[in-house]
Design a protein that fits this description.
By secondary structure, the chain is α/β, with parallel strands linked by helices. The chain contains nine helices and six strands. The chain has a five-stranded mixed barrel. The protein is elongated and about 100 Å long.
Length: 227
């Protein structure tokens, strides 16, 4: 009985009628060209800077490039040198460096001295921050993801340190790595100033700076801090 039921399906059952099995209704429209073909979309290539931003946001590193390399010309205009150049600098010379903060250490046996490790596209630099400078720039020392440091070179054999006497928070500069810099809920346009009015132009500048800084901090991993 089951065999006769299958033969009763005709072409769909593949019985012994000798006829070519008909296409199932599900695929009939495909044979008739009934499906609409969508045009291929040509999406713009993602800039290298955004690739690096996404790598750091997800992997904490990037094999494509280092964030500081995109800002090198900007920092060079302020006198910042690559870390690799420290090997040929004589002790006692004053230098300027920039780099991502990898590690902050404040050993209990170091009388309040902070040791920080910065990284740029050429290598690392070891920074010494005396307690007096730390107290004057506590927020910058603790929260910055990208630092600009001015200080003097100290050498002991192959070990090189920079004794800092000035530091600046440059985290906000990292926001420029994204092509969408200045776009989004946190960004202010001239029209937005009417929604959040300010009688003092300095307040608007400060707000933009903080928003850029917070946006940049979201994709740069925090340093590894030890106390």
């Amino acid at each position: 009985a089951a065999l006769w039921a299958v033969r009763g399906l005709g072409g769909y059952g593949g019985g012994s009628t000798g006829r070519q099995p008909a296409a199932l209704p599900l695929f009939a429209a495909l044979e008739e060209g009934g499906f609409q073909r969508e045009e291929e979309m040509a999406l713009p290539a993602m800039p290298l800077g955004e690739h690096v931003v996404l790598d750091y946001a997800t992997l904490r590193l990037s094999l494509k490039a280092h964030p500081v390399s995109f800002l090198r010309s900007r920092f060079a205009a302020r006198g910042a040198m690559p870390h690799a150049g420290l090997k040929t600098i004589e002790a006692g010379r004053r230098v300027t460096l920039t780099g991502l903060v990898l590690v902050r250490q404040r050993p209990s046996t170091a009388s309040g001295v902070i040791f920080a490790t910065l990284e740029d596209e050429t290598g690392i630099a070891n920074i010494i921050i005396w307690p007096k400078l730390f107290e004057a720039r506590r927020r910058i020392v603790i929260t910055s993801r990208l630092l600009l440091v001015r200080g003097r070179v100290q050498k002991a054999g192959i070990v090189i340190h920079i004794v800092a006497d000035e530091i600046e928070d440059m985290t906000h500069e990292l926001a420029s790595l994204s092509e969408n810099d200045g776009i989004g809920e946190a960004a202010l346009s001239p029209a937005d100033e009417a929604k959040r009015p300010s009688h003092d132009p300095r307040e608007v500048v400060t707000t933009r700076y903080e928003e850029r800084r917070l946006r940049a901090a979201r994709f740069v991993p925090k340093s590894r801090d030890f106390h």
